[in-house]
Amino acid sequence: MKKPYEKLVGKIGNLKIWIVDGKYVRDRLNEEFTNCGEHYQFHFIPKNEMWLDREFGTKDEKYYIDYILTEYELMSKGVPYGEALKQGDIVQKREREKEKEFIKLKGLKEGRSYKLLDRIHKSLIKEYSNHLKVWIVDGKIVRGMFFIDFVEGGHDKVYSFIPEGEIWIDDDISKKERKFILLHEAHERYLMSKGENYRSAHYNSSKLEHKYRLGKKGLDKELKKEIKRNDLLIKKKMEKGYLHY
């Protein structure tokens, strides 16, 4: 079996559903590939296939299938990607809301948001956490409670539900990829803190991430530099009384 294929997990009509090595896809084909994909979004995926990234966190596979199948069917009929994405998210959200766990978490969100945050925070990456806090989070809860398209990572300058001064890394990302995702998020957060808009900051951060995915040396040094730049900005805000923990 050739890369990136890992396991054939099902068929829907003439469509084959494959678990693939997402890191391989992001390193060699397109760093924007996240938890799933189909041909009309990513043309390197064959027309009769749907790809699901191998999961490392709480299982979301069945919801991705609901989403990607809807997107595929609509785009195959000429529906633009933006609308197909929207409709796929509606289907996925409806299925997630049927879970008993969703009802419990929704109650926490409405009444005890601090307890919901405790459920989301899984582990602090102490090596990169000083004034800036870098958390491994339960991505499934984030997708269910806040933003269904949350993937890989995010930070407070993009998502209002992330506490100020925090970067979140989805637990669905393998340990060997965390540094690439964290580099992207830290660089993007710094640029946006300095006034750059999201589109530009994301583009520049993707370029930086891709450079190190291609094997350029110095990833650890670059990552520490980006973390330090964020730390200094947060420290200044704390000293001025604009930020409290």
Question: Features of this protein?
Answer:
245 residues, 2 domains, four-stranded mixed β-sheet, 9 helices
Rounded mean pLDDT is 92
Secondary structure class reads alpha/beta
As laid out across the biggest beta sheet, the strand order is: 1-2-4-3
Query: Level of helix content?
Result: 40-55%
The fraction of residues assigned to DSSP E strands is 15-25%
How many distinct folded domains? 2
SSE topology string? EEHEEHHHHEEHEEHHH
Residue ranges: pLDDT <50 for 5 or more in a row?
none
Query: Count the strands?
Result: 8
How many separate helices? 9
Distance between the termini: 50 Å
Question: What features would you describe in this structure?
Answer:
By secondary structure, the protein is of the alpha/beta class. The chain has 2 domains: 5-96, no CATH class; 113-239, no CATH class. Helix 4 crosses helix 5 (113-120). It has helices at 22-28, 61-76, 81-96, 100-111, 113-120, 139-145, 178-193, 198-213, 219-239; strands spanning 5-12, 15-20, 36-38, 49-53, 121-124, 133-137, 153-155, 166-170.
Short description:
The protein has helices at residues 22-28, 61-76, 81-96, 100-111, 113-120, 139-145, 178-193, 198-213, 219-239; strands spanning 5-12, 15-20, 36-38, 49-53, 121-124, 133-137, 153-155, 166-170. The protein has 245 residues and is of the alpha/beta class.
List the helices and strands and how they pair.
Blueprint (H helix, E strand, L loop, with lengths): L4 E8 L2 E6 L1 H7 L7 E3 L10 E5 L7 H16 L4 H16 L3 H12 L1 H8 E4 L8 E5 L1 H7 L7 E3 L10 E5 L7 H16 L4 H16 L5 H21 L6
Parallel strand pairs: 2-4, 6-8
Antiparallel strand pairs: 1-2, 3-4, 5-6, 7-8
Helix pairs in contact: 2-3, 4-5, 7-8, 7-9
